[in-house]
Structures are given as C-alpha cells and as structure tokens.
Automatic annotation (TrEMBL):
<keyword id="KW-1000">Mitochondrion outer membrane</keyword>
<keyword id="KW-0496">Mitochondrion</keyword>
<keyword id="KW-0472">Membrane</keyword>
<keyword id="KW-1133">Transmembrane helix</keyword>
<keyword id="KW-0963">Cytoplasm</keyword>
<dbReference type="GO" id="GO:0005874">
    <property type="term" value="C:microtubule"/>
</dbReference>
<dbReference type="InterPro" id="IPR049039">
    <property type="entry name" value="RMD1-3_a_helical_rpt"/>
</dbReference>
<keyword id="KW-0539">Nucleus</keyword>
<keyword id="KW-0493">Microtubule</keyword>
<dbReference type="GO" id="GO:0000922">
    <property type="term" value="C:spindle pole"/>
</dbReference>
<dbReference type="InterPro" id="IPR011990">
    <property type="entry name" value="TPR-like_helical_dom_sf"/>
</dbReference>
<comment type="function">
    <text>Involved in cellular calcium homeostasis regulation. May participate in differentiation and apoptosis of keratinocytes. Overexpression induces apoptosis.</text>
</comment>
<comment type="subunit">
    <text>Interacts with PTPN2. Interacts with microtubules. Interacts with VAPB. Interacts (via FFAT motif) with MOSPD2 (via MSP domain). Interacts (via phosphorylated FFAT motif) with MOSPD2, VAPA and VAPB.</text>
</comment>
<dbReference type="GO" id="GO:0005634">
    <property type="term" value="C:nucleus"/>
</dbReference>
<dbReference type="Pfam" id="PF21033">
    <property type="entry name" value="RMD1-3"/>
</dbReference>
<protein>
    <recommendedName>
        <fullName>Regulator of microtubule dynamics protein 3</fullName>
    </recommendedName>
</protein>
<dbReference type="GO" id="GO:0005741">
    <property type="term" value="C:mitochondrial outer membrane"/>
</dbReference>
Length: 184
C-alpha cells in the first residue's frame, strides 16, 4: 500500500504499520531472512519522511537487517540489490550526514560506488534480469568509475527490460540522461 499511495503522510502511516508488523514477526522468528529484508525495506520507506538524525539511524538499521538477510539467505537477489542501493546512497552522502552519523552514533557510514557495484552485480549474477533499476544502477556505477563502455552496455541491458515496479518506471529519466551522457 505504501508504494501505491501518493500522499506523504499516508505513505508514512503504511510504512510505520508495516514496520511494527515486521518487528513482531522478527520477535517470533529472528532467523527468517524475509522478515529482516522487509524490516529493512520499511526502515528505508520511513527514512524518506524523517529528519537527518532519524534518517541516519534508519540507515544503520537498514544495513544491519539487510546484512542479516544476506547471512541467512545469501542467494537472495533482492537482498544484494538492497545492499547495493544502501552502498550507493551512502557513497553519495554529504558532509553533514556523515558528520551526523559519527557524532550521534559514534560510527561512520562508509561505502563506495565500487561496493555498490559489487552488490548490484551479485544480484544480477544470482538472477539475470532481476531488476531494471538494478541494471540502471550498474550503469551509473560504471559511469562514475569512468568505465563508460561497461556503463553503455548495462544501459542497453536495462532498456531491454520492461518496467515491473514503480521504481523501474521512475528510472526512465535516469536512462534517458545516461543515453545522452554515454551516447547512442
């Protein structure tokens, strides 16, 4: 429901309810990879509606639960895709977010574009064509690493996939920008 609604407070309400349900599920089965995965997703959804301190806190929680999901179910492409997104976003954090994390949580948020790329490639290895958004991220990572030939290849592969999720549709603009930047 969170993905289907447009209104911010309604999205937050659905995400909060979902997170509470996921917490209850984790209390019953902490060894369930899917519970950890969906808890992480809901932390991410809630972070979109929070201030910087809560966003950073949600980021740590997101990473913790994605890591647990991967440890429990290493062949899950969604878990690797989500880790890739986390790494990509952390690699693009500004100075203020990084300093906030260090000051409030005595821990740094650290990830590189290369880390993100490895996670996205792992998801693709586990299930080729898993996600159009994943292929767009792979293209963006390669471009940022100065590997335009590989970026162009993954951009073309992304264009071959249909839009399955709202996120896939949202990446159409990114694909158009990549086409202009990379040529072809």
């Amino acid at each position: 429901m969170c993905e289907l609604t447009e209104e911010g407070s309604e999205k937050k309400s659905y995400a909060l309810n979902g997170k509470e349900e996921a917490e209850a599920a984790l209390e019953k089965g902490a060894e369930n990879a899917e519970c950890h995965l969906w808890y992480a997703v809901l932390c991410g959804q809630l972070a979109e509606h929070e201030g910087i301190q809560r966003r950073v806190q949600s980021g740590f929680s997101f990473k913790e639960h994605v890591d647990k999901a991967i440890a429990l179910q290493p062949e899950n492409p969604l878990a690797h895709f989500l880790l890739g997104r986390w790494c990509y976003q952390v690699s693009h954090l500004g100075w203020l977010e990084k300093k906030t994390a260090t000051a409030l949580f005595e821990s740094t948020l650290s990830a590189t574009v290369q880390d993100a790329l490895q996670s996205f490639l792992k998801a693709e290895e586990l299930q080729p064509g898993f996600s159009k958004a994943g292929r767009v991220y792979i293209s963006k990572c390669y471009r940022e690493l100065g590997k335009n030939s590989e970026a162009r290849q993954w951009m073309k592969l992304a264009l071959e996939l249909p839009d399955v999720t709202n996120e896939d549709s949202a990446f159409q603009k990114d694909l158009e920008e990549l086409e202009v930047i990379l040529g072809e």
